[in-house]
C-alpha cells in the first residue's frame, strides 16, 4: 500500500503520460483532419484511411486523462471543468462531429460525402483550437480578462499548428506520391507556424506569470533546464532541413519528421509541467492537496500496473498490423 | 427561469439516453459478429462472411456514435455534477477507472484490427480480434452497471465527514442489485440487437433482396429473440423482487400503490395523481401484485405514503414500467410466433416482415423505458440514502447550461436521424450486391 504522498506523485505522472500520449496520438489524427483537402477526394480518402484503424483508440487517451483527473484529483477535476464549461462543450461538439463524420462519410449517400468531409475538417479544427484555447486559459489561471482571452486564442492557434504539424508528419510517413509531396509542404508550413507559436507562448507565459518566471529564470537548476528550449528550437530548424531534403528524396528518412514532431511535443509538454508542478490548478491547488482517498487509489493501482503495459503492448501490435504505407480502407 | 439543477438533470438525461442507444446495440451485436465469423471459419461458406461484412459496417457506425457520446459523458461529472465525485468519488472513481483501463482501450484498439485488418492478419487472429472487441464491450457493461447498481443499492463503504470511503471492494462491486441489473441489461442488449437485425433483414427481403444472407440473419436473430425474450421476463421478475427487497419505494411507484396494504392489486392501468395521492381511472387485478412480489395472495406491500420525504416521482416510473413490460410481451409474442412460422413455412409472410421492420428499434424503447423506471425510481437520491441530487449539482450559471443543453439536443436529434437513415441506406445498397456465384470465388478472401 502506497501512502498519499507517493500516490499523488504516481497518479500525477500517469495523468501526465495520458495527456502527452493523447496530444501526440489524437494530435496527429486531428491534424490529418485539419489538413483534409476539400477539393481532392482521392487524397481525402487516403488521408482518412491512414488514421482509420487508430483514431478511436487515440481518443481513448483523452477519456483516460480526464478519468484519472476525476479519480485521483476530483477537486481539481471539478474546478477545472466548471471553469471551462462552455469551451469544453464546444470542444466536445467538435469531437462528436468529427467522430461520426468519419463513419458517415463512408456510408452515407455519395452526394453527402463532401458535406461529411467538410464536417470532419471543421470538427477537427474546432476540437484542436478549443484544446489550445483551454490550455491557454489554464495557463492564465482561468482569469477573466482581455489579456487571458487573447493569450488563449493565440494558444488555440498554436495547438492547431502543432496538430497540423504532427498530422502532416504522419502523412509524410504513411503516404506516397503526390499526396506525400503535399504533406511535406504542409509539414513545412505548419512547422514554421508552430515554431513561432512555441516561441510566442514560451515568452509570454513567464512575462505574465511571475511564478513561471521564477521557476525558469531564478532557479538553481537554470543551466540544467536551459537545454530544453534550446533543443526544442533546434529541432524545429532540423525539421525544416529534413523536409527540404525529403522533397528531393521522399523515401529516405520519411519517418524523421514524425519522430522529430513527437520529441518536440514531449519537450513542450515537459516545459509546461516544469512551469506548474506541483500545481494541478495553477496557483490554487497542488497534486498533494487534491488527492482522493488512498485506499481507492491503491485499489485502482493494481489494475494500472497490470493493464497499462498491456494497453501499450496491444497498441504496438495494432501499429505493427497497419505498418507501412497506407492502403485503401476496406472492411475485408 | 429554469435553474441550473433542472437544466443539468435534463442535460444528463439527454446525454445518457442518447448514449445508451448505441452500446445497447453494440454489446450484443459484437457477439452476433463473433458467431458469424466463427461460423465462417468453420464452414467456409460465403453466406456467413456476407452476414459478417454487412453487420460489421453497422457495428462500426453504431460504435462510433457510442464512443463520441461516451466521451461527453466522461466530462459531465466534472462540468455538471462535481458533488458526485467529491462525495462518492472514492467508489465511483476506481470503477470508472477500471472501465476505461480494461474495456475502452481494448475494444477501441482491436476494433481497428477487426474492421480493417482482415487482409493483414491471419484469419484466426482476425476472429480473435472480433472476440476481444466483444469481450471489451461486455466488460464495459460490467463496470458501468456495477457503479450504477452501487448507486441504487450501496454497500461496502463507510461515511467519514459526509464523504464515502470504501471498506470492502468485493461488496462494492457485487452489491445486491448488480447481478440482476447486469443480466437484465445484457439480455436487453441481446434483444435490442436481435430485433434490429431481424428488422433490417426483413427490410432487405421486402426490398426484393433474394440473397441468402438476409434470410440467414433473419433466422438467426429471430431464434435468439425467441430464446432471450422469455428469459428476460424471468430475469426481470427476479430483478423486481430484488428491488422490492432493497428499494421498496421504487416498487411502490412502479405498481402505483399509495397505501401500504395486504393483498395489493396489480394495477394494469391508472393515472397516478400526486396531489390527491391516489390513482384516477384504475383498472386492477385484485391481490395480483402481492402474489407476484411476495408469492402470497395477502402479502404486504409498502405504499408510497410511507416514504413521504423520499418519494420518487410516480408518473414516469409508473408509465415507464408499463411501457417496458408491454414492449417485452410484444417482443416475446412476435419472436416466438414468427420463429414458429419460419420453422413451419420456411419463410415469413409480407405482413410479418413489415411488423419486424416496424419493430427494428423496439429494443431501444423497452431499454429506455426500463432505465427511466430504475433511475427515476431512485430519486430524490443520486446514491440511495447517501447523496441527494441537489447536493451534487454544479455552480455553473444556468444560461451556460441552457446553451450546452440546446447544443447537445440539436446535434443528437440530427445524428439520430442521420444514423437511422444511413442504416437503411446501407441496407438499400446491399440489396443491389450480386449473390456470389459459387462458394469458391470468395474462399480465397484472405489471399
Please, could you describe this protein's structure?
Chain A: Pfam families: Cyt_bd_oxida_II. Chain A: It is found in: Cell membrane. Chain A: Keywords: Cell membrane, Membrane, Transmembrane, Transmembrane helix. Chain A: The chain crosses the membrane at residues 6-25, 83-101, 122-140, 146-173, 194-213, 219-240, 252-277, 297-317. The complex is a heterodimer of chains A (332) and B (447). Chain A has 13 helices and two strands, in the order H-H-H-H-H-H-H-H-H-H-H-H-E-E-H. Chain A has helices spanning 4-35, 41-51, 55-72, 74-83, 85-107, 113-139, 146-174, 177-208, 210-217, 222-225, 227-248, 256-276, 294-321, and strands at 279-281, 285-286. The model of chain A has no long low-confidence stretch (mean pLDDT 88). Chain B has one domain. Chain B contains 14 helices and eight strands. Chain B has helices at residues 4-43, 46-80, 82-116, 123-152, 169-173, 178-206, 212-246, 248-255, 288-294, 314-345, 350-358, 362-376, 398-432, 439-443, and strands at 157-160, 163-166, 261-262, 266-273, 278-285, 300-301, 381-383, 387-388. Chain B has a two-stranded antiparallel sheet with strand order 1-2. Chain B has a two-stranded antiparallel sheet with strand order 3-6. In chain B, helix 6 runs antiparallel to helix 7 and helix 7 crosses helix 8. The model of chain B is unreliable at 438-447 (pLDDT under 50). Chains A and B meet through helix 3, helix 4, helix 5 and helix 13 of A and helix 2, helix 3, strand 2 and helix 13 of B.
